[in-house]
Design a protein that fits this description.
The chain is mainly alpha-helical. The protein has 15 helices and 4 strands. It is 75% helix and 3% strand. Helix 1 packs across helix 8 and helix 1 packs parallel to helix 15.
Length: 334
């Protein structure tokens, strides 16, 4: 009973993190593209495309972090000290971005300042997320039941590479979202941006994927040892298929397929992380079951999650359905 519920909770938290990356990734990506578009009209269209949904996207980040604290307190107590700097930077970046999002619509003379604040806050948040991910993948030093690394363990060549990869990936999500939501000259420019971001993202995924197995013997065994390779081989094959459809649709005229293919790349990358990590919450020191809180606590929390998660999924799906289609500037965000 204990092991099953702990496994379910690990899946819930992983799902929350994945949904956050998929949803908040494209509006962070739009902000990363802001400096390349000088006219206020283009920037207004870009921001209006995410105005109805951007705030709700961050719900999943709260759910992932809160779930980790409530259900896997040992993992939380180890991971947080290792990632204090990037996590604080991420939160400040997200706050800065949120303030800029609201204030830029309330001023005329200072609008350009809030545009830069929007881009800078999103850049900081994205880099911080990439550094945190890279640090977790490369391994956190644990002695007993506590973090035993240094203040700067999160700043390494590998973590910087993952930060660069996430910047490129979010720019890809943002540009493909705008290919789907805009039309005319802006959409044409977005196709070019998306194509460049696609090649950069695919190249960086390749470098990170080649590097990762050599960070830890467990990762190497999962990806290259027999018979494990039989189960892991479909992941790179599916990545190649997504890459093919992404490039083909961007060169062509399709509008929705590029965004779905880009999301597919993120999902498959996340699956790859899951293959490398399982069954560890802190690779390779603390397993899911080592980190879990007692069964009664998990059952109590799971009862609440069984109600809240479907509700959040429902209102998220509904909001995207209501605001489907192209951006309508006549009903813009004010």
């Amino acid at each position: 009973m204990f092991s099953i519920i702990a496994f379910i909770w690990a899946g819930v938290i992983a799902l929350a993190v994945l949904i956050y990356v998929m949803l908040d990734g494209f509006d962070l990506g739009i902000a990363l593209l802001f400096p390349f578009f000088r006219t206020q009209h283009d920037r207004d269209v870009m921001m209006t495309s995410v105005a109805p949904v951007w705030d709700g996207n961050e719900t999943w980040l709260v759910m992932g972090g809160g779930g980790l604290l409530a259900v896997f307190p040992l993992a939380y107590s180890i991971i947080l000290p290792a990632l204090y700097a990037p996590i604080i930077a991420m939160l400040l970046g997200l706050v800065f971005r949120g303030v800029a999002f609201e204030f830029r619509w309330r001023t005329v003379r200072g609008k350009f300042l809030w545009d830069y604040a929007f881009a800078i806050g999103s850049f900081v948040a994205t880099v911080a997320q990439g550094l945190a991910l890279g640090t977790l993948v490369q391994g956190i030093k644990v002695t007993g039941r506590a973090y035993s690394g240094g203040w700067w363990d999160w700043l390494t060549p590998f973590s910087l590479l993952t930060a660069l990869a996430l910047l490129s990936g979010y720019a890809l999500l943002g540009s493909t979202w705008l290919v789907m939501k805009t039309e005319g000259p802006l959409q044409t420019r977005m196709r070019r941006f998306a194509l460049r971001s696609a090649f950069a993202t695919l190249a960086l995924i390749g470098v990170v994927s080649i590097w990762t197995p050599f960070l830890n013997p467990l990762f190497l065994q999962r990806w290259f040892a027999f018979p494990a390779i039989i189960y892991t081989l479909p992941v790179p094959i599916l990545v190649a298929a997504c890459a093919y459809w992404l490039i083909k649709s961007l060169i062509g005229t399709r509008e929705v397929v590029p965004f779905l293919a880009a999301q597919g790349l993120f999902i498959l990358s996340f699956v790859g992380l899951g293959i490398s990590f399982y069954p560890y919450m802190v690779p390779t020191s603390v397993t899911i079951w080592d980190a879990a809180t007692p069964t009664n606590s998990m059952v109590f929390l799971l009862a609440g999650a069984a109600v809240l998660v479907p509700l959040v999924l429902a209102y998220t799906a509904y909001s995207y359905w209501v605001f489907r289609g192209k951006v309508d500037m006549s009903a813009g965000y004010h």
